[in-house]
């Protein structure tokens, strides 16, 4: 089984200098690539000079996470793509459990390792933690992370199990499945494109898994900080695009309407907090969604899974019920 570890880079020389050594050291079973997204720094020259064993793919323009990977992976031959953020530190033997699962489970299409916080290594990291889910209205959450509450890793999620979505921070996918679905949706540019792809993979009948034996550490926010209004805009817009493409037909308009109301409430909260830029970010997200509605509706497949969520409203559970831990939500479900 040919494994390609592919790190998408954009002006990230410092991150490559810090984190590429661990990837090279602990990925002997794979070929390591840096896919450069039209950087203007000397990232490519740095890799060529210091890591001659690493292959380089240079994209002509910066088309974000989605377009960057779609472009680069056309030039990479492998059975499994491991899409790894440039701010990920991998650990010894991180690949072996994942390779074994792909070899033994033909219907498993996507795998995510345990993702812990590089800056606070006893805790799960925001982008993925121990595997992702969404609620009925498309809000994402994880085993080990509800909104901004991160759990300490006490082994409570040391079980390998099926999940709904895997984090794009460290995302393993069979190349055959990736190509069958034409990869990421480039209209997303960045944020939640991996959830959209996972939903489409689920609709095709494949399985997505979390494997706790594989462990990595993620800095998070190294490209776009959590509090950046652009991040808010992309998350709100892309969530609506994702729902339009993947919701069961009978639920589509009801869920979209409720989600828009909830987004409006979030906008009012931003206003009350004095976060005017984030309020405008939600407005911009909605206008962009309206402009792209027909285009995205046309992308719907012939089959949408009816059971796509494990809890009706993570917003209600977290903000009204004050539940802070994933296992408490499952207990009360």
The biggest beta sheet reads: 10 strands, mixed
Give the total of beta strands. 14
Shape: globular
Specify Rg, calculated over alpha carbons.
Answer: 19 Å
- Helix fraction, binned, reads 25-40%
Q: Can you tell me the residue ranges where pLDDT is under 50 for at least 5 consecutive residues? A: none
Question: What oligomeric state best describes the polypeptide chains here?
Answer: single chain
Order of helices and strands: EHEHEHEEHEEEEEEEEHHEHHHHH
Residue fraction in strands:
15-25%
The number of helices is: 11
Average of the residue pLDDT scores: 95
How far is the N terminus from the C terminus? 40 Å
> Which structural category do the helix and sheet elements fall into?
alpha/beta
Characterise this structure:
The chain is an alpha/beta fold. It has helices at residues 13-25, 43-50, 64-73, 96-104, 175-180, 193-203, 229-246, 252-272, 276-297, 314-320, 326-332; strands at 3-9, 30-37, 55-59, 80-84, 88-90, 108-117, 120-124, 132-134, 140-142, 145-146, 149-150, 161-162, 170-174, 207-218. The strands form 3 sheets. Strands 1, 2, 3, 4, 5, 6, 7, 12, 13 and 14 form a 10-stranded mixed beta sheet that branches. It has a two-stranded antiparallel ribbon with strand order 8-9. Helix 6 (193-203) packs parallel to helix 7 (229-246) and helix 7 (229-246) runs parallel beside helix 9 (276-297). The protein is globular and about 55 Å long.
């Amino acid at each position: 089984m040919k494994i390609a570890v592919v790190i998408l880079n954009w002006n990230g020389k410092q991150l490559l200098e810090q984190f590429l050594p661990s990837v090279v050291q602990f990925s002997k079973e794979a070929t390591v690539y840096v896919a450069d997204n039209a950087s203007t720094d000397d990232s490519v020259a740095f890799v060529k000079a210091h890591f001659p064993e690493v292959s380089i793919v240079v994209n002509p323009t910066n088309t974000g996470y989605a377009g960057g990977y779609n472009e680069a992976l056309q030039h990479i031959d492998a059975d499994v793509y491991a899409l790894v953020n440039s701010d990920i530190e991998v650990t010894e033997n991180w690949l072996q459990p994942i390779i074994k699962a792909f070899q033994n489970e033909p219907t498993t299409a996507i795998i995510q390792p345990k993702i812990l916080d590089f800056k606070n290594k006893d805790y799960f990291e925001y982008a993925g933690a121990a595997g992702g889910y969404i609620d009925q209205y498309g809000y994402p959450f994880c085993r080990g992370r509800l909104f901004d509450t991160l759990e300490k890793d006490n082994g409570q999620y040391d079980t390998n199990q099926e999940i709904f979505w895997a984090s794009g921070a460290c995302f393993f996918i069979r190349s055959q499945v990736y190509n069958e679905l034409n990869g990421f949706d480039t209209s997303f540019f960045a944020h939640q494109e991996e959830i959209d792809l996972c939903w489409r993979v689920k609709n095709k009948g494949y399985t997505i898994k979390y494997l706790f034996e594989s462990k990595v550490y993620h800095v998070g926010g190294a490209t776009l900080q959590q509090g950046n209004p652009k991040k808010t805009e992309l998350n709100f817009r892309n969530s609506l695009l994702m729902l339009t493409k993947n919701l069961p037909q009978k639920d589509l308009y009801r869920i979209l309407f409720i989600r828009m109301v909830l987004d409006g409430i979030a906008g009012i909260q931003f206003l009350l907090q004095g976060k005017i830029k984030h309020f405008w970010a939600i407005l911009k997200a909605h206008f962009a969604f309206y402009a792209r509605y027909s285009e995205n509706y046309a992308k719907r497949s012939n089959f949408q899974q009816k059971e796509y969520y494990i809890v009706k409203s993570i917003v209600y559970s977290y903000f009204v019920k004050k539940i802070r831990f994933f296992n408490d939500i499952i207990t009360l479900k």
